[in-house]
């Protein structure tokens, strides 16, 4: 297959767990969510689009190399790779490519496209061919409100000759959740009922985090980005009006530099408006891109499409902020591990990935009537991204010090081990804070998050030409932190230094330097008689509610300028 023939398709994932044995079976719940209605059995000649994630090479080598380029004490710090160099490292073996392509061609599948790294194939085929390719599948059309999609809810298999060459197949089982189901607040508009208050605006952000009128971007080679999913769109007119109302006193841009993808029609989403308005007012005067994935095909997964776009573009922004996630337990290990590799690829290129920690505190999963556990989220729990939690002002009527926002997502992964860069900080928290929640509620050895935080409560946003108050969530704090890191990148570029890239190893070595420590407050969790709605609590230094704290821009800039 010619690497120059590339197209990014839109699709929704299903996930398969590769196991030893004759067949490869789907490990994901194939049940139909209540809000999706069965319409009809799909005709055999209708088309579906499946995505095949081919096994990559040198994954362990990638992990070690990422540690070196991200560790300020390493002689390889900041020596990032180009997309082409990453592709040469991870490209599937010739055997893997041959086996998968022969398998597809033997079923008459020819309409396939790939990406620069050659590790994904997206193929269009008829339903009849798909059901022959994946024995057990039976595709039906489902509807939710005005949206339809094609899915099979039965388990399927992949033959043993192929299973060892694939990580997962997408486009079969998974139903996309509604925005509100993604993480209770990750659709962006958790609107407080606190009455009149100060409200968070760009001037408040800049005052609290010590940004002056001179702290704006000037480097020509700097850029930042947000990504929009779940039919979330921003309107250029909203951004222009927001900047007119709230961005006086400092140089800024009032328009997005580049939109990657197609903006959908209809009303602007609060989530999308929030992301764009606050990354551009915090990271002021810096070129900003918007990746937008409305999902035009009946098999769609905009999040993975965005990840693949990054594997298909040699020049992308240096900082990306994303307010999107799902419960770890709703995703397969195979899928999450593969997405982690995609994050590694970004880090090797010097790209900073920031994800919102979520708005459900520690979360809660009801295992039985008598037993609950906390519920970590992904990608917030990934060891290869920087996760941002949330805070509130102690006094909501003026700019004061910050305390925990009770919705701030945080906790410990049930899937990923604690990475080396955070071992000392997390163990110090576990030893010093008492009492902790019962250990039956969380995985004490897991990757802990968030890594840092910012204000997440009571933002002003302009959406559909109307200023809207009381918008809250870590989807607000994340673009603020992203904009501040972009400003630091800007100063680094002016001095000939590389981008910050994957910042976590350096962040943890700073041990809170350049950040305001947040030491008050707890976040929410399960409403039961054992934890009584309380999750983890903030403490001096790192904690699983606000991480290392919130930015003090001048001090953080100084700490990161070598």
Summarize this structure briefly:
With 562 residues, the chain is α+β, with helices and mostly antiparallel strands. The chain contains 15 helices and 30 strands.
**Percentage of residues in helical conformation:** 25-40%
Task: Find the structural class using helix and strand composition.
Answer: alpha+beta
Low-confidence stretches: 1-29, 180-196
C-alpha end-to-end distance: 44 Å
Largest sheet: 8 strands, mixed
The percent range for strand residues is: 15-25%
Q: With helices defined by DSSP (H or I, 4 residues minimum), what is the helix count?
A: 15
- Let me know the average pLDDT: 88
Bulk shape: globular
The count of DSSP E runs of length 2 or more, i.e. the number of strands, is 30
EC number: 3.4.14.9
Protein name: Tripeptidyl-peptidase 1
Catalytic activity: Release of an N-terminal tripeptide from a polypeptide, but also has endopeptidase activity
Function: Lysosomal serine protease with tripeptidyl-peptidase I activity. May act as a non-specific lysosomal peptidase which generates tripeptides from the breakdown products produced by lysosomal proteinases. Requires substrates with an unsubstituted N-terminus.
What this model shows, in words?
With about 550 residues, the chain is of the alpha+beta class. The chain contains 15 helices and 30 strands. Strands 11, 12, 13, 14, 16, 20, 21 and 24 form an 8-stranded mixed sheet that branches. A 4-stranded antiparallel sheet has the order 4-5-3-9. It has a 3-stranded antiparallel sheet with strand order 2-6-7, with no helix packed on it. Helix 1 packs across helix 11 (about 335-350), helix 8 crosses helix 9 and helix 10 packs parallel to helix 11 (about 335-350). The longest helix is centred in the last third of the chain and has 21 residues, at about 475-495. The protein is globular and about 65 Å long. The two termini are about 45 Å apart. The relative contact order is 0.14.
């Amino acid at each position: 297959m010619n690497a120059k023939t590339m197209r990014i398709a839109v699709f929704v994932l299903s996930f398969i767990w590769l196991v030893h044995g004759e067949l490869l079976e789907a490990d994901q719940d194939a049940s139909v969510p209540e809000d999706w209605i069965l319409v009809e059995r799909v005709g055999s000649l209708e088309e579906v689009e499946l995505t095949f994630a081919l096994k990559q090479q040198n994954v362990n080598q990638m992990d070690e190399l990422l540690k070196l380029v991200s560790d300020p004490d390493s002689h390889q710090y900041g020596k990032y790779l180009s997309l082409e160099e990453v592709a040469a490292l991870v490209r599937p073996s010739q055997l893997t490519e041959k086996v998968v392509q022969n398998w597809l061609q033997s079923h008459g599948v020819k309409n396939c496209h790939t990406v620069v790294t050659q590790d994904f194939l997206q193929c269009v085929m008829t339903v009849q061919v798909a059901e022959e390719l994946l024995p057990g599948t039976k595709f039906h059309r489902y509807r939710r409100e005005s949206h339809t999609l094609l899915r099979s809810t039965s388990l399927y298999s992949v033959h043993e000759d192929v299973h060892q060459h694939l990580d997962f197949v997408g486009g079969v089982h998974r139903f996309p959740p509604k925005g509100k189901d993604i993480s209770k607040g990750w659709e962006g508009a958790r609107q407080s009922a606190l009455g009149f208050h100060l409200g968070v605006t760009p001037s408040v952000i800049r005052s609290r985090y010590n940004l002056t009128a001179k702290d704006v971007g000037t480097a020509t080679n700097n850029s930042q980005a947000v990504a929009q999913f779940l039919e979330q769109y921003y309107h250029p007119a909203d951004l222009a009006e927001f900047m007119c109302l709230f961005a006086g006193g400092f140089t800024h841009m009032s328009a997005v530099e580049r939109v990657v993808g197609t903006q959908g029609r209809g009303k602007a989403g609060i989530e999308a408006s929030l992301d764009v308005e606050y990354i551009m007012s915090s990271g002021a005067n810096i070129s900003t891109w918007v990746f937008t994935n409305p999902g035009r095909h009946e098999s769609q997964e905009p999040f993975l499409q965005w990840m693949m776009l990054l594997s298909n573009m040699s020049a992308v922004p240096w900082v990306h902020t994303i307010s999107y996630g799902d419960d770890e337990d709703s995703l397969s290990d195979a899928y999450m591990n593969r997405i982690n590799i995609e994050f590694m690829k970004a880090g090797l290129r010097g790209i900073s990935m920031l994800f919102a920690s979520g708005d459900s505190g520690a979360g809660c999963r009801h295992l039985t009537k008598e037993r609950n556990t906390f519920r970590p989220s992904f990608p917030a729990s990934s060891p290869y991204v920087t996760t941002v939690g949330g805070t509130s002002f102690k006094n909501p009527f003026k700019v004061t010090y910050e305390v925990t926002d009770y919705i701030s997502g945080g906790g410990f992964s049930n899937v990923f081990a604690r990475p080396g860069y955070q071992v000392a900080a997390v163990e110090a928290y576990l030893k010093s804070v008492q009492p902790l929640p019962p250990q039956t509620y969380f995985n004490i050895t897991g990757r802990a998050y968030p890594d840092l935080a910012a204000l997440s409560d009571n933002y002003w946003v302009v959406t559909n030409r109307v200023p809207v108050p009381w918008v809250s969530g870590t989807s607000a704090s994340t673009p603020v932190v992203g904009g501040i890191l972009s400003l630091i990148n800007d100063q680094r570029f002016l001095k000939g230094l590389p981008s910050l890239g994957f910042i976590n190893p350096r962040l943890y070595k700073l041990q809170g330097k350049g950040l305001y420590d947040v030491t008050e407050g707890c976040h929410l969790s399960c409403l039961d008689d054992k934890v009584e709605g309380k999750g983890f609590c903030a403490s001096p230094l790192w904690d699983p509610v606000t991480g290392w704290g919130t930015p003090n821009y001048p001090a953080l800039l100084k700490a990161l300028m070598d």
